[in-house]
Amino acid sequence: MRILVTGGAGYIGSHVVKELGRAGHDVAVLDDLSTGNSWAVKYGSLIVGDLADEQMIERVVDTFRPDAIIHFAASIQVEESMRNPLKYYRNNVGNTLNLLKVASAFGVSRFVYSSTAAVYGIPETIPVDESAPIEPINPYGASKAMGERVLGHLADSSDFRFVALRYFNVAGADPDGELGQAYQASTHLITRALKTARGEFERLAIYGTDYPTFDGTCIRDYIHVSDLASAHLAALDHLASGGGSEIMNCGYGRGYSVREVVETAKRVTGIDFQAFETDRRDGDPPALVADSSKLRSLTGWTPRHDDLEFIIGTAWAWEKRLLKRMTA
């Protein structure tokens, strides 16, 4: 198939592009490179452009004629969304509307959407499944929930079909060593822990120790980025085989606390880096753990890297490669 991937030069998008290329798909990547990197696009062609430019999207779709679109391009930092909500509604809702308008005009009826567990807010039950109430507690989650709603309405009114994948906490790096998290302003816990281990940060902040969890810190379901990438190909196959529109969680169904992640990172790296406790961040729910049985049963998706030490180990190998690149 011919697949247009927006945000395909970013962390998750680049891993998906690699999987698509290896599977034999014809790929075009559309990315503004605000947080992505051109070197991360290992397959297909890279078009640099902003989804705020509807005419540019029209030119790309008219030229490439995709059979499907995978849409990653978005702003994704919870804390920033609390400070600058308009940016999140502009990028995550407005730009998605631009893309969908063009897709509809050119008859692109298969769409895979990058969503988030943040749409659930503070779920009443853990693990959380897709039937849980949508009650986001930050603008990031709210903007993604709004995108899902738009997709649903479009599917109800036409032959358009979509899969929205709700990510839990994505971590790790390409086991081949070609790709990884390269966004210097990353707020991801594992990335920041490893950057602290290699000396980029003096100390690692643990935000909040009074949550209603077993050790007082937030609990998250960490999924390896390569397993998440394979979920996108599974979603694409679902649509290609005539499957209907679906919303599906992407996670392993087990959670680790911030303190557990920090201790595992110290064990993997062999470095007893400093961490300090501070106040909660706005917009962080106490626990988010996925029930991904729907994804598994509908698509046959089977994760290969459900191991926190492996996840952190691949991320650590990538961080050391980054350091060598920076000091070369």
What does this entry look like structurally?
The protein is α/β, with parallel strands linked by helices and 328 residues long. The chain has helices at residues 11-22, 54-64, 78-83, 85-105, 139-157, 189-197, 225-240, 258-269, 293-299, 308-327; strands at residues 2-6, 26-31, 45-48, 68-71, 110-116, 161-167, 169-171, 204-207, 219-220, 222-224, 246-250, 256-257, 275-278, 287-288. α2 packs parallel to α4 and α8 (258-269) packs across α10 (308-327). The longest helix has 21 residues, at 85-105. The model has no long low-confidence stretch (mean pLDDT 95).
Low-confidence stretches: none
CATH class label of the largest domain: Alpha Beta
Compute the number of helices. Answer: 10
Largest sheet: 7 strands, parallel
User: Could you say how many structural domains there are in total?
Assistant: 2
Class of secondary structure makeup = alpha/beta
Biggest sheet, spatial arrangement of strands: 3-2-1-4-5-6-11
CATH superfamily of the largest domain: NAD(P)-binding Rossmann-like Domain
Distance between the termini: 39 Å
Number of β-strand runs: 14
The dominant shape is globular
CATH topology of the largest domain: Rossmann fold
Classify the beta-strand content into a percent band.
15-25%
Average pLDDT value?
95
Task: Report the order of strands and helices.
Answer: EHEEHEHHEHEEHEEEHEEHEEHH
**CATH architecture verdict of the largest domain:** 3-Layer(aba) Sandwich
Provide key terms for this protein.
328 residues, alpha/beta, Rossmann fold, UDP-galactose 4-epimerase, domain 1, seven-stranded parallel β-sheet, three-stranded mixed β-sheet
